[in-house]
Description:
It is a single chain. This protein is mainly beta. It has one domain. The chain contains one helix and seven strands. The chain has one helix at 85-88; strands spanning 2-3, 9-12, 20-22, 33-41, 56-63, 68-74, 94-95. The strands form two sheets. A four-stranded antiparallel sheet has the order 4-5-6-7. Strands 1-2-3 form a three-stranded antiparallel sheet, with no helix packed on it. It starts with a strand and ends in a 7-residue tail after the last strand.
Amino acid sequence: MTTDNKGRAFFNDSRAEGDWINLAAIPYAPSCVVDAALGYTESGATPADPEKKPNSLYVDLLAANGTVYQAVCTVSTEVFRAHNIAAFCGDRFIRVPGTPVG
């Protein structure tokens, strides 16, 4: 995960070396992204939080206004690409409740 000076966020699936996906391919991705984070749950893991699904990537984007948006993406054997990432990441980014903080 990385961001650029134009407020865009990019993700690279290590199985597709050098293929950086603009996360704007996922509906409702925020513009003016200032930071990004990636979390995951492993296959077969029993998450402490029952809302968390095994085999998932949690993509968090921080917009310039302090609002955090999250997309939950299902991991499979298929490589993430720009043309298929939205299908793996639910239907959109959603605003994380309670943000912005302060």
